[in-house]
Structures are given as C-alpha cells and as structure tokens.
Fold:
Amino acid sequence: MKYLIIMPRYSLPVDGSCGGAVEQLVNSLIVENEKQQGVTFDIITPSFCNEKYKNTNVYSIKESKLLLAMKRILRKVFKGHKFVSEYYKKAYKIAEKIKPDRIVFECFYEANVGKFANLVGKENMFLHKHNCNINETGAQDCFGNIIAVSQFLRDGLQEFFKNTSLNIEVLKNCVSNNGFMQPVNETEKYNLRHTLGLKEDDFVIIYCGRLHPEKGIDKLLLAMKDVVSKHKNAKLLVIGESFFKNSKPNKYTKMLTQIADEIKDNIIFTGFVANKELPKYYQMANLQVIPSICEESAGIVAMEGAASKIDQIITNSGGLPEYAGRFAMVNKENGLVENLGAEISKSIEGKLALKESKNEIITKEEYYKKMIDILS
Structure:
C-alpha cells in the first residue's frame, strides 16, 4: 500500500529536527515504518528533510515568494475569494505521478482538495484534524474520513457533520520519544539542575510548549509573582520559543520577558530544547503546568508529563484532560492567574489534590499500528 501524507504549507521538517507536534507525529510514523516495512509513505512538505529513508519518499515544495506576496494583495482586494496556493498545485502534480492508495491531509486543506479525491476516491481521503477550529464546510464533499486527536474533538466534529456520511475516528497522539517512560538516572538530573543554576532544594515548575498567547504562559508568569512571594525556592523553567526552533523575538515574547524581569531570579527561559533531551527536563522537575486558555484539541506535552510521572496542573481546555496523568485542573475562564498561583503553592506545600487518571499513554509503535489500521 502507498500512503501519501500532505503536510501543511507552513510546517517544519518531518525529520523532527526543529520540533512541532504534527511533525513529531509524522516522524514517528516514518521511523516505525522503517522498522516494520509495512507500507510505503510518500510525504509532501514545504521544508527540506536531511534524512534519507528506505520506505519513505519525501518531496519538498518551495513556493515562489513573489507569488505569495501577490496573493496576499489579491486576497485583500478580492475578499472572500478562495485562491489555490502554488504549494497544493504542485502537490497535486506529485500525487498524480506517484498514484497513492490513500491520501492524508495533516491539519489543513484548500479549495482544490476535491481534485485529489478524483485520484483515489473520496472514501480513500483522510483529514487528520489536530485543532479545534471546526469550520470545515464542504469537507464532506472531499473527504470520506476524519481522524480526530481526542474524543473532545470527535464530539465537536460529529455535531458539525451530523447530517453527513463522514466517518470520524479517534487516534490519540503518541509520545514521540519513548525515553519519557524510562527513568532518568539521578546523576543526569543533578547535572542538568547544576547546568541551569538550580539548587538542590529548589521546587522546579516546568512549562513546555510554544510561547503564544493562546497557551497562557503570560498568566503563568503573573501567577508566579504570588508564588515567589511565599516560596522563594520556586523556580519556573520555560521551555520553548514562539514558533519552535530558531524563532525570533516578537511582541508577545518581549512582553513575557518584561513580566519575568520582576522575578528574574526565579524564571529560566531555556529556548528550544531538542525532543531527545526533554525527558530529563521533565523528570528533573517537580511539577508541570499547562495553562492553555484556548480549547486544546489534545496535548502531547500533557502526555509527555504523564509518561514522566510528574504532577500536573492543567486548565479545563478541550482534550487536555484526556492526555494528562496525575493532575489538578483549574478553570481557564475565571480567575486563572489567582487559581494557578494557589494550586502551585499547594503543590509546593504538599497539599495539592490530584486526580489519578486512567488515560492511555500511546507509544510510537502503538500509534503506527493504529494509524495503519485506520488507513487500511
């Protein structure tokens, strides 16, 4: 079987070298397929991939900067008109040549996706939905299937498409590095704390993810002001950048720096950390906080924390509770800053009321098998 995976127009390399949740998931499929050699993957991406694979062909598409600029202008002039990008036009030509059995669109698609359905049939078209922006009018005319990353997202999609014949299934995300489930030795954890300038008795809180307003990191930093006033040994480790590796500072990240400056001795911004290094960061910490203020469709970082067996504080955000492990939940709508501060202080004092979930932690091997079963 030949499966074509079409990445979003603005995605990162599928070798996972620059981060990105979707990219890490696709990389998991590639890596497992190299071991099991079950199918052939053809992957279309806007980013160059350094790796070479036996059972995966990667096609990199570069769009003309001039055409992109012209279309931005035309979209402003002709509001509401749907322009087909050069990326998807080139992707279609590649699909025509390779003749896949199934086509999977990761996250997004554009107006001309119906042409792809003509190549394989609508029943062999899959939309792998990773976000909660459910505005997929017309998807039922192009796709026969939608893969949702949580039950929360599936419920929303089923309501939206209740009068259609679309098949909607749940495939939970996996931990992209099985090292999260392996204990990190004490020496490694000690050395990492020493490198970061942390003391042995510091209570380390970890945030891992993009530095974006919808992730609520500014609320967490504001909450830390109250925490630090009571607990001088509380240290917040902020792992991530505005858009993964090599991101440049923007207005929001500069604002975060300004907030953190008031308690700068208790905040550490690490920037991007490679996925293979993350397990020791999680296991070195005492608490993970995920303060999302948007509706998260899922939560790979929540699953990473659960696999690492670290206590978690999360918001009542979409599918996050489906991925968390041992957690306490706060309301993201009302008094988030105060509630986060109070719950973090309880954790430091050993008084945090934690819920022990029975959520399944999906390994890369299981994720691969389940994806192939859905596509078969």
Remarks:
- The first helix runs from residue 21 to 36.
